[in-house]
Amino acid sequence: MTDETPKPPAEDTPAPVDETPERPSESTPEATAEEQQPADEKPAKPKLSDEEKAAKIAAAKAKAAAAKAAKEQEDAEPKPPWEEKPVPPEHADAADDPEVAALAAAVADSVLGADNYAGHVTVSIPRDKVLEVCRFLKDERKFAFLVDLTAVDWPEREEGRFDVVYWMHRFEDSKRLRLRALLPDSEPIASVTGVWKTANWMERETYDMFGILFDGHPALERILTWEGFNGHPLRKNFPVEGIDTGAAIYPDVYPPGGGPVRDEEVEPPPEKKKPEKATEATE
Amino acid sequence: MSEQFPSLFDVEEMELSFGPQHPATHGVLRVQLKLDGEKILDAKPIIGYLHRGTEKLFETMAFPQCIPHTDRMDYLAAATNNQGFCVAMERLLGITIPPRAAYIRMILAELQRLASHLVWLATHAIDIGAITPFFYTFRERDAILDLFEEYCGARLTLNTIKIGGVPFDLPDGWVDRCSALVEGFPAHIDEYEELLTNNRIWKKRTIGIGVVSPEDAIEWGLTGPPLRGSGVEWDIRKVFPYDRYDEVDFVVPTGVNGDTYDRYLVRMEEMRQSCRIIRQCLDRLPDGPHMARAPKVLRAREGMIYGSVEAPKGELGYFIVTTEKSTQPYRCHVRPPSFINLQVLPEMVRGHLVADLVAVIGTLDIVLGEIDR
Q1: Mean pLDDT, rounded, for B311-322
Q2: What average pLDDT does range B180-192 have in this prediction?
Q3: B333 — contact with chain A (CB < 8 Å)?
């Protein structure tokens, strides 16, 4: 396009500019329709369209130039951050973080990796060192406050199905640190209720939702579902629509480990036929 | 007496189920009590009656679709729930919200804090036997809900904060009506305090009840007014300022004794501070857009994020795990303040009378929708 355009506008620019006021009446859809029907006026049309083309090209060029200028101006003055396309934070290595360094120095083989994402440091630790690491962080590094404890289920991962995540806070300088321990299915992990009392219900919830066993918990009972509930709802293989909770009440009908009732197993409700019969009888 | 009949009066223990259909449990909370006469030997809260699997539902929905579900958790403070989720999501996606949106959010969140504290005051007072404050507080709460209704059309489940800002600009005249409400509000707080603060019965029922030391409060993970009532000055709005809380001036009130009365005073002062924040926000309300230019389909990078806000009940956190280029959370865990705060109930009521249990449940300000999720 750019190769062809330079010539016509340079030669014809005066003409189209003069004719532009007249053009609207001719180029209306009605006018063009009338022109197209008679065959005599055909030669006139391409002429017009040529001029039109030139005008259009000129207009487009001017427009593009204006847009370009505007864009350059916009680029020149920085846009506010909410006008720009959001950029998600990047992962960064956090091995040089003072907490991570202190932890690695104090507890041998405790740091498998450290990641900084959006300002939050996540330390991966082996599952058999959880208690030792938490004790050290609370007693020596003054992480007095356990904010959150939960788990994430990755059923396809080979190294271990669950991530148990600890999220702690230090009051002195408002520093937060996250621990992550890999845990294979059906293997227990040490309870940290002895370190922070608040872990009690958090661990109960994690046990209830994921079936993760916490060794040394004073009373590891279900908390959000009831004793005898069949399954652990936040595991990825637990159906979103839920299971038939008759499992605990009728173990012979719904054996433990049984999933949701399939459609074919559900008997159609018999009430539907009755009203029909009734209406027939009344008719 | 006890010397004559030791076995009859000293040894007998009774088990009593308090709730789940008891009006003073503020929802479907059941507390299994072990009693010696009127004295509580042990208490065990039993929860889960309102469990709806919200965290499981989050995993099946696109990010913006999760927001209406956050409304249903702490249904007395929907705006702060929305805000918590959106603050976490914005950190995950790297969105900066425009200043006008941040100020509107702060106004909504503080109005929501007022509304939530008013419900707390009403129910807490009525539990202890003071019925009058209920009528006063619900008068003001209705005015606040009217403002919400005018802004977004809903009164309870607001769904009024979006990822990247707020869905609407403020309607015409809203600012004037809001500032009129806020100007008159401290006088109303005086009204409530006149009824309760120096009331002899109120003091007898609350002073020295459910004492938590600051060390215990931290150990048990308390946040919000229960933590501040014990004398720990800690507020997410100050510690990790989100939106534009670092630009407004307010004080974090703290208690001294960590009892029910101190927590009451802390919340009353918090309401005054909320009014102060709203007034500053209304005065400085900047012009500009109310939504950031976020893409229509939000895609996250692989990672874990935690975002938290100071909800009326304490620190409300959202822990979100995403996979590469996902449009929905892989896992979204909520840290509900009520859930963690309720844990300390047995410690607080041991040795007290059954009537004090009602006061302690009230002072913890729990919402079962948030506890059970």
Answers
A1: 91
A2: 91
A3: yes
Nearest to B72 by CA among B328, B330, B270, B334: B334
Residue A152's H or E segment, with its range, is strand A145-153
Confidence (pLDDT) at A183: 87
Lowest mean pLDDT among A209-218, B36-45, B52-61, B294-303: B294-303
**Pick from A82, A152, A198: CB nearest B343:** A198
**B330 inside 8 A of chain A by CB:** yes
Instruction: Tell which B residues from 66 to 95 touch A, by Cβ distance under 8 Å.
Output: 91-95
Q: Do residues A169 and A176 lie in contact, with contact meaning Cβ atoms separated by under 8 Å? A: yes
In one-letter notation, the amino acid at residue A258 is G
Distance CA B235, CA A138 (A): 21
Give yes or no for residue A282 having a pLDDT over 50. Answer: no
**Cα B17 from chain centroid (whole Å):** 26
Instruction: Tell me which of B32, B42, B306 to substitute to probe the interface with A (most A C-beta atoms closer than 10 Å).
Output: B306
Instruction: Please name the amino acid found at residue A211.
Output: G
Average pLDDT score over residue span A186-193: 88
Q: Give contacts of B100 with chain A, Cβ < 8 Å.
A: none
Mean pLDDT value across residues A63-74: 71
- CB-based contact, B97 to chain A, within 8 Å: yes
- Bond preceding residue B45 cis, omega within 30 of 0: no
Residue A16 has pLDDT above 50, yes or no: no
Question: In chain A, what residues touch B101 (CB-CB under 8 Å)?
Answer: 82
Which of the four pLDDT bands, split at 50, 70 and 90, describes residue A48?
low
Query: B239 vs A166, A169, B155, B244, B310, CA distance in Å?
Result: 20, 11, 30, 13, 10
Q: Could you report the predicted ipTM of this complex, rounded to two decimals?
A: 0.85
The pLDDT of B197-205, averaged and rounded, is 88
Nearest one of A102, A260, A75, A271 to A177, comparing CA atoms: A102
| Alpha helices (H) along chain A | 7-12, 14-19, 23-26, 29-36, 44-76, 98-106, 130-139, 199-210, 273-282
Q: Flag if B319 and A80 touch (Cβ within 8 Å).
A: no
Cross-chain CB nearest to B239 (options A88, A174, A234) = A174
Listing DSSP states for A63-116 in one string gives: HHHHHHHHHHHHHHSPPPTTTSPP-PPPEEE-TTSHHHHHHHHHSTT--SEEEE
Report pLDDT digits (tens) over A144-173.
899 999 999 988 888 888 889 999 998 888
Average pLDDT of the residues of chain B: 88
DSSP element (H, E) containing B303? strand B303-311
